[in-house]
């Protein structure tokens, strides 16, 4: 199952991240995971929220450049080598990862990794077949 992630183009200037998060807060959007990749002039804010379509509408209404991207969310046991097993499986199956970032949940003993890759749906199926926990959109958005 794939999750919808917001990708927001942001200028690298003081207060810009605050503006974006304030728009989300005013729209009643709850952030589940967040990552920023930046250069000296701009960045890409990647955000998983509980209501992705509403978040896109709110951000666009405020003149922000935003798009939805499909990613997968993989549950990883909190023990040495667990993440390595998932990454090795994906590599051995020929999946090409573009980027990833992680977050922890309220569930003890679990961390979750957001992964963007070629053919994410197939990657999720392969991981699930090998015993990895793949979060559904509903599960993640309601965490």
Automatic annotation (TrEMBL):
Q: Which Pfam families match?
A: ACT_8
Task: Specify the ACT domain's residue ranges.
Answer: 5-79
PROSITE patterns given for it?
ACT (PS51671)
Known InterPro entries for this protein? ACT-like_dom_sf, ACT_dom, ACT_dom_pair
Gene3D superfamilies, alphabetically?
VC0802-like
What SUPFAM superfamilies would the database entry show? ACT-like
Q: What is this protein called?
A: ACT domain-containing protein
Origin organism is: Neglectibacter timonensis
């Amino acid at each position: 199952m794939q999750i919808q992630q917001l990708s927001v183009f942001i200028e690298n200037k003081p207060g810009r991240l605050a503006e974006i998060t304030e728009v989300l807060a005013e729209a009643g959007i709850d952030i589940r995971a967040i990552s920023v990749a930046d250069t000296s002039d701009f960045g890409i804010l990647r955000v998983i929220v509980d209501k992705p379509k509403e978040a896109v509408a709110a951000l666009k209404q405020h003149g922000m450049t935003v798009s939805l991207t499909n990613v997968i969310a993989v549950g990883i046991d909190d023990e040495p080598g667990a993440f390595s097993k998932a990454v090795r499986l994906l590599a051995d199956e020929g999946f090409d990862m573009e980027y990833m970032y992680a977050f922890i949940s309220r569930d003890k003993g679990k961390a979750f990794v957001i992964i963007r890759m070629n053919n994410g749906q197939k990657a999720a199926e392969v991981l699930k077949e090998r015993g990895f926990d793949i979060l559904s959109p509903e599960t993640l958005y309601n965490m």
